[in-house]
UniProtKB/TrEMBL annotation, chain A:
Record flagged with keyword NAD: no
Record keywords: Bacterial flagellum, Cell projection, Cilium, Flagellum
Name the record gives this protein: Flagellar basal-body rod protein FlgC
Name of the encoding gene: flgC
InterPro entries the record matches: Flag_bb_rod_N (IPR001444), Flagellar_basal_body_rod_CS (IPR019776), Flg_bb/hook_C_dom (IPR010930), FlgC (IPR006299)
NCBIfam families: FlgC
Predominant cellular place of this UniProt entry's protein: other
Species this protein is from: Uliginosibacterium paludis
Cellular compartment(s): Bacterial flagellum basal body
Length: 134, 145
């Protein structure tokens, strides 16, 4: 029954979008981080989506990889910081807060849409199950 | 005597099948299209994804004529089992014409997809209503009131 596949497809999208929300949360939390977990300035992380075949016709989505943004880090003049270079500049994270906010709104809207798709599929399946009962 | 009854039952089954076939086929295709549209919506942010859809009218036409992939038949293991088969997919998948191009090569237009999804849901419910009506009619005929 192909209606079950709608659940798989929308579910894969929910999963992918929540992962995107996760990276956005991580990026936003580290906007002011001069040091990442590896000791270097924090790099913004972005997810890369990829379509995967699910069932006969529909295609779901999966997170292919998480890439680190190659943008240069923000330079902040702070000679007192222990991380400052010889000219007194500290390399901060390369997170663009505005871009992350846009990403967050986009991901949450996509999540809502797919949740609604699931709800619709559920309603239709319930009606199918009730065929001939009324 | 038993053979005669079984023949009668089989004939009635065929008639019931024929009465419902159109709507059954339509419902199957609607479910398949729903799957396609859900895939489009799921891939709204996937770079390079091309939105797909089917021409429902022509898909229904070819499904009713029995074209498309081979039907999946129910295996009968005893002589008295009634043969049945579910149709395979008859829909030819098409690519949607792009209205506003995006840099990442994605052709999903959320408004179009949402509208198509809502429309397809209503049509699915309509098919269900038709089948329910047919079943009620048959029930009435059987109960002889």
């Amino acid at each position: 029954m192909s209606m079950f596949n709608v659940f798989n497809i929308a579910g894969s999208a929910l999963n992918a979008q929540s992962m995107r929300l996760n990276t956005t949360a991580s990026n936003l939390a580290n906007v002011e981080s001069a040091l990442g977990a590896d000791g270097k300035p924090y790099k913004a992380k972005q997810v890369v989506f990829q379509a995967v075949q699910m069932g006969t016709a529909g295609q779901g989505v999966q997170v292919k990889q998480v890439v680190e943004s190659a943008a240069p880090g923000r330079m902040v003049y702070d000679p007192k910081s222990p991380l400052a270079d010889e000219k007194g500049y500290v390399t901060m994270s390369n997170v663009d807060a505005v871009e992350e906010m846009v990403n967050m709104v986009s991901a949450s809207r996509a999540y809502q849409t797919n949740a609604e798709v699931m709800n619709t599929a559920r309603t239709l399946m319930q009606k199918t199950l009730a065929l001939g009962q009324s | 005597m038993f053979e005669e009854i079984m023949n009668g039952v089989e004939q009635m089954n065929v008639q019931l099948d024929n009465a419902l076939r159109f709507h059954q086929t339509a419902l199957n295709l609607r479910a398949e299209r729903q799957e396609l549209l859900a895939g489009n919506i799921a891939n709204a942010d996937t770079p390079g994804y091309k939105a797909r859809d089917m021409n429902f009218g022509s898909a229904l036409g070819s499904a009713l004529q029995g074209r498309g992939t081979a039907p999946v038949a129910l295996s009968t293991t005893a002589a008295r089992h009634i043969a049945a088969s579910a149709p395979g997919s008859s829909a030819q998948l098409l690519y949607r014409t792009e209205q506003q191009s995006s840099v990442d090569g994605n052709t999903v237009n959320m408004d179009v997809e949402r509208a198509a999804f809502a429309e397809n849901s209503v049509q699915y419910e309509a098919s269900i209503t038709f089948i329910n009506g047919l079943l009620r009619t048959m029930q009435q005929a059987v109960s002889g009131q």
